[in-house]
Amino acid sequence: MGSLFRSEEMALCQLFLQSEAAYACVSELGELGLVQFRDLNPDVNAFQRKFVNEVRRCDEMERKLRYLEKEIKKDGIPMLDTGESPEAPQPREMIDLEATFEKLENELREVNQNAEALKRNFLELTELKHILRKTQVFFDESVPTVYKSSGATYSSSKYRRYPQMADNQNEDEQAQLLGEEGVRASQPGQNLKLGFVAGVILRERLPAFERMLWRACRGNVFLRQAMIETPLEDPTNGDQVHKSVFIIFFQGDQLKTRVKKICEGFRATLYPCPEAPADRREMAMGVMTRIEDLNTVLGQTQDHRHRVLVAAAKNLKNWFVKVRKIKAIYHTLNLFNLDVTQKCLIAECWVPLLDIETIQLALRRGTERSGSSVPPILNRMQTFENPPTYNRTNKFTKAFQALIDAYGVASYREMNPAPYTIITFPFLFAVMFGDLGHGAIMALFGLWMIRKEKGLAAQKTDNEIWNIFFGGRYIIFLMGVFSMYTGLIYNDIFSKSLNVFGSHWHMSYNKSTVMENKFLQLNPKVDYEGSPYPFGMDPIWQVANANKIIFHNAYKMKISIILGVIHMIFGVIMSWHNHTYFRNRISMLYEFIPQLVFLLLLFFYMVLLMFIKWIKFAATNAKPYSEACAPSILITFIDMVLFNKPKPPPQDCEVYMFWGQHFIQVLFVLVAVGCIPVMLLAKPLLIMQARKQANVQPIAGATSDAETGGVSNGGSHGGGGGHEEEEELSEIFIHQSIHTIEYVLGSVSHTASYLRLWALSLAHAQLAEVLWTMVLSIGLKQEGWVGGIVLTCVFAFWAILTVGILVLMEGLSAFLHTLRLHWVEFQSKFYKGQGYAFQPFSFDAIIENGAAGADAE
Question: Compositional bias of type Gly residues: which residue ranges (predicted)?
Fold first, then answer.
């Protein structure tokens, strides 16, 4: 079989490269992305490897580029992304790149430092401007005259509305602002000059600042404050902060020292403020002049910084790609070994067998680029190690392969379920989601993503939900198309039916009965014309409120079991392909055949009974093949397994559906039960006998690597084997017992598990009908221009609920149930998933992961 159905054949190769050609050759292999290198120095510390200095240099260049990127994003400058991937630079070009990055970083840091210093100076001048402006208002008021009133000292009666430093409830206990000497000196008609400090503080610290001043100075200070209306820019981080101007009056050097310490503790900035009005005006004029000059210099600095960043933004993406490629090459070279002459590098790598010639051509190109005269040598090695699993994918099959790999990476050369999942996954989803309208919405959404995939992929958003939708665009499109097909089979579009071919039933009721009777039933003896509707369900079932759901339930339940049994049988047949490919004769005879016989004789026989019942029994037939004589398939199956005697049938009806049914059922059950000990004991006993005959040596091809661990995994079919230590016989018996019990019980539970197809289909149809009946029909019943407005609003609400609940939520539910049916019910029959993925050295993957990591940061 081709690589679509099995993973690629892999080969372990040894690669010899000349030291001067190694960089160019690895660069070519990175562009190719088909080689997975092994670490030949697992015990060597990362800091002791040969090319650790080059890796450190690349890390330093990446740090500088991240700094440039941060500054560019801060200014909102768009970065040019051509989508092209430049080649990895030569080693000698690293010096030029380092010099360029060093120059840019130093220039940008210097500009930033200058800009920060200018902004800090600008902030100080702006705060001083506000202080001079606000304190002028304070000084323009009357000079404070100190007087004593009921134990509390205030400066002038007009300040009574600012009792920041007084406690109105305990005025008698408050200390006086000037003390006894000050009071004696401040007799009526005498003015007392007070000291003051002025500054700026963060607005949120002001209440605590006032309380501290009051407690520390015992109320002997007077505080005035005013808010600065416009926020100021913090020069350190560029944040906008709100501040307030304050002025504190006090008397004496001791209080002055205390006030300054409190201001320092609250990180308030103090500024000199002259006492004379003329000096204040002169200082304000000087401050305004300096602010204007600073604005000019700041604008020039910002322009220069912007020009530097714009120039860097044009090349930043390419620089990132180049540096990451250099770093990846040297990191890969650290996995190599040096020969004794220190002139040749030796590597070991896994390569796909079909691509060896392509890899050799790439190595030849790398040698020519480096100017080396010694060609590289690529030798294929023999190994017993299990090779990695490599399934080639394209943009269509990638999403389906991801569903399989999420369960477990396939063992080497094991049958790959992905090609079959391309059909079975959207089909089983559609059985649960079958609705022509909802399927069309989903298909159109998937088709839109497919048509616009180049533009959407170039946007590279970090929205995880959108990336999941976009990655599965082909799955969504197929699920929508298959849902439209099953919607036609169910004749269901937004819970209504299409009457394309005309109903093949005739109504024996009048119009009023059909429209008003909620318990209307269809009688196939009278109403059915004898020929079925050409495609799908007959639309007449829309009016049969009483037995519509009964008919649909019976149909969908049986279809679910039929599809489930066929799906499981197909899974068991897939295991036959694995056994024949790996030449595992024992598993073929004593696992595959008993499993298939067990499944066919019990569950496929039940499916045949359903078809026999559909063919032989009908409402228009006379007894013993009328609908009254039709037996229950479930009861028949239970009686068959338990060897129960069937219950007496109704009058003129037969016990069995066909001649010899009882004998065949007993025979089938006995043979199926007889398959259980064969599955349980035959394989371990044969392995034990073979080991005894071979003097306890494992026999190639006797068992799979899961049981004995000593089988050649693929023999001549692959580039590696599964040669491991022999497994104990007791473990083989235990493993086989678990496997047999799981299969026998799982056959029953898995068959019942497929009933989720019926349950979710029923739930989806009923939810659609509820939305139509409870929401949209309300708008359709309105008349006149008011009805048009009501219908528009109701339709919008119905459309939102339809997309949000029936398409998104129900779609997600059906998707998860379909995923479970494939992982558990289908893949458990043949798929081990015990391999490890092929992870080639690829520049594309490295750059994509690096870009994703940068976006996450």
Answer: 711-721
